[in-house]
Amino acid sequence: MLPEWEIKTRSRYCGRTKEAFRDGETIYTLLFREKAGFRREDISESAWLDVKTEVAPFSFWKSKYQAPEPPAPEKMPKESAEELLRKLVGEDQPEYLNVRYVLAILLERKRTLKQVDVRESGDERILIYEHVRTGEAFIIADPRLRLDQLDSVQQEVYKLMVPREAEVQPEQ
């Protein structure tokens, strides 16, 4: 079972030099697997060149820093796929393993998430995604769904995303 993971937003500062990142700057994200869970560290390209032979992260990737956008206006109450994924990752309930995986794939197809790494750890396969806009890292276990399971998982996703009152009631 994966250790609990709290979604971590991309840092605004280099974890080594403490200097602020500039918009468009190349940065490296290092993900370390520790006893207490995963630890994320964002560093500048120059810091990466200094430490790349000294560190052994679980995963790492290169990206462009994007300065955060101003807060968006209040969202509609209906949960989007992204909001639902955030909620389910935060709750970390094993019964939603398949749903988290399908939502991550959906958000990857919508170009909201970008898969940055895949790791095999024992008999588990771990997919590591980065949110394209915010730089947050999402760690999703691959449940290795079979084709015959997809329909029921899609129904489960639909039920979680559509409020009960909005579901079409059959005529009696």
Structural features, described:
There is one protein chain. With 172 residues, the chain is an alpha+beta fold. The protein has two domains: 8-68, no CATH class; 76-162, no CATH class. Helices cover 25% and strands 27% of the residues. It is built from four helices and six strands, in the order ββαβααβββα. The protein has helices at residues 45-51, 81-91, 97-109, 150-161, and strands at residues 26-34, 37-44, 59-64, 113-121, 124-131, 137-142. The protein has a three-stranded antiparallel sheet with strand order 2-1-3. Strands 4-5-6 form a three-stranded antiparallel sheet, covered by helices on one side. A hairpin with a 2-residue loop joins strand 1 and strand 2. The longest helix has 13 residues, at 97-109. The termini are far apart. Residues 74-78 and 164-172 have low confidence and may be disordered.
Strand order of the largest sheet: 2-1-3
Number of domains: 2
Order of helices and strands: EEHEHHEEEH
| Percent range of helical residues | 25-40%
**What is the radius of gyration computed over CA atoms, rounded to a whole number of angstroms?**
18 Å
Which regions are unreliable across 5 or more consecutive residues at pLDDT < 50? 74-78, 164-172
In terms of DSSP E residues, the strand content is: 25-35%
What is the distance, rounded to the nearest whole angstrom, between the alpha carbons of the first and last residues?
A: 45 Å
Q: Quote the average pLDDT.
A: 86
